[in-house]
Amino acid sequence: MPIIINLDVMMARRKMSLNELSERINLTLSNISNLKTGKAKAIRFSTLDAICKALDCQPGDILEFRE
């Protein structure tokens, strides 16, 4: 899949755990884990918005396109 999700990188930069992010954005641990490991096939804009607010970043910090 050419879209890479760098959620783990941003979480590490902000020193935020999976549990803390889950609580802040009100999303289950399994859903965040799927995003973090790249197993997710889609992401809602509302979820991306909540993640960006919680991690104080831009969508481009989380999503990357690679050929």
From TrEMBL:
<dbReference type="InterPro" id="IPR010982">
    <property type="entry name" value="Lambda_DNA-bd_dom_sf"/>
</dbReference>
<protein>
    <submittedName>
        <fullName>Helix-turn-helix transcriptional regulator</fullName>
    </submittedName>
</protein>
<feature type="domain" description="HTH cro/C1-type">
    <location>
        <begin position="7"/>
        <end position="62"/>
    </location>
</feature>
<dbReference type="Pfam" id="PF13443">
    <property type="entry name" value="HTH_26"/>
</dbReference>
<dbReference type="InterPro" id="IPR001387">
    <property type="entry name" value="Cro/C1-type_HTH"/>
</dbReference>
<dbReference type="GO" id="GO:0003677">
    <property type="term" value="F:DNA binding"/>
</dbReference>
